[in-house]
Amino acid sequence: MSNILIVHAHPEPKSLTSALKDLAVETLTAQGHTVQVSDLYAVNWKAVADRGDFLEKAQPDRFSYVAESRHAFATGTQTSDVEAEQQKLLWADAVLLSFPMWWFGMPAILKGWVDRVFAYGFAYGLGVHGGERWGDRYGEGNLLGRRAMLSVTIGGRAPHYGERGVNGRLDDLLWPIQHGMLFYPGMQVLSPFTVYQTDRLSEAEWPAVAEAYKRRIRGLFSDQPIAYRTQNGGHYDGQQVLKPGLGAGVSGTRIHLVQPGDPKEVLEGTTGRDAAREMEACSDR
Questions:
Q1: Name one Pfam family in it (predicted).
Q2: Cα–Cα distance measured from residue 20 to residue 134, given in angstroms and rounded to the nearest whole number
Q3: Are residue 122 and residue 214 in the same domain, yes or no?
Q4: Distance of CA 29 to CAs 2, 14, 81, Å?
Q5: What backbone phi and psi angles, to 5 degrees, belong to 71?
Q6: Is residue 264 pLDDT above 80, yes or no?
Q7: Residue 17 and residue 84 in one domain
Q8: pTM for the complete prediction?
Q9: Are 157 and 95 found together in one domain?
Q10: Are 108 and 45 in contact (CB under 8 A)?
Q11: In this predicted model, what pLDDT tens digit does every residue of 98-123 receive, in sequence order?
Q12: Alpha-carbon distance 27 to 30, whole Å?
């Protein structure tokens, strides 16, 4: 059985978002998994990244969050709340982020969790930079081998977030989270579970939503992840720009998904293992 971390961000324990979190705990526990929940509002998580995050100052005369984060992680002088969350991430085999969509993104308290916990040397600033390789990121990193999924409640209607919807494609709105925060440090990201028109959901509609979420939870370790291109898999040139000949027929963020028609000759430098993994993920999407 596996270890699952749920990072939950909703201020109301009786909300739909919180009900989905509780359902995830119940379903995963029934499967025999071990679950930890970081309930950010319940613990009054410090969301603002500032000088107070560092017990020792590497540069006392001029504050640089990156420099202080690197120093604190390297010297073991991070604050206890940040270190505890990092240990949970290393413990976990999968991570669920549970939150309502507010103003086209996550609540500030959850963004603050990412800002503070994803420290330099832990989630970024890893690996050798040189040639076409810009460190260990986008498919590599300290969180490699873990799975991640978003559970997002949305007040708007589903068509508003469709291909031609006025709010923009949901995949594009979630791109900074799924690709930029989860795939960047190495996690495999599953398609999100979403519930629309949450303020209009009736008691009669809840059982269908609950059953759909349980199906997704049960597939946490079997469903195919989003087929993002790995940074160091031969898809990008020395400036980290997608090579010519890749991404044909699509646009926007979708060019960064492995496509069935990608010419293999363009993927020079792709290791056999990386190529097989990426093309398999693509073919099963």
A1: Flavodoxin_2
A2: 38
A3: yes
A4: 10, 21, 25
A5: -65, -45
A6: no
A7: yes
A8: 0.88
A9: yes
A10: no
A11: 999 999 999 999 999 999 999 999 99
A12: 5
Q: Which residue type sits at 91?
A: W
Token look-up 């679950």 returns 35
Range of the domain at 236: 227-285
Chosen domain end from 186, 209, 226: 226
Q: Are strands 147-153 and 193-195 parallel, antiparallel or unpaired?
A: parallel
Last residue of a domain, one of 182, 203, 226: 226
pLDDT of residue 265: 66
The CB density around residue 175, as the number of other CB atoms within 10 Å, is 17
CA distances from 83 to 136, 160, 212, 231 (A): 21, 39, 34, 28
Residue-wise pLDDT tens digits, 17-52: 999 999 999 999 999 999 999 999 999 999 999 999
- Please tell me the distance from the alpha carbon of residue 18 to that of residue 12, in angstroms, as a whole number: 7
Q: What is the 3-state secondary structure (H, E, C) of the chain?
A: CCEEEEEECCCCCCCHHHHHHHHHHHHHHHCCCEEEEEECCCCCCCCCCCHHHECCCCCCCCCCHHHHHHHHHHHCCECHHHHHHHHHHHHCCEEEEEEECECCECCHHHHHHHHHHCCECCCECCCCEECCEECCCCCCCCCCCCEEEEEEECCCCHHHHCCCCCCCCHHHHCHHHHHHHHHCCCCEECCCEEECCHHHCCCCCHHHHHHHHHHHHHCCCCCCCCCECCCCCCCECCCCCECCCCCCCCCHHHHHECCCCCCHHHCCCCCHHHHHHHHHHHHCC
210 lies in the same domain as 260: no
Place of tokens 């993002």: 228
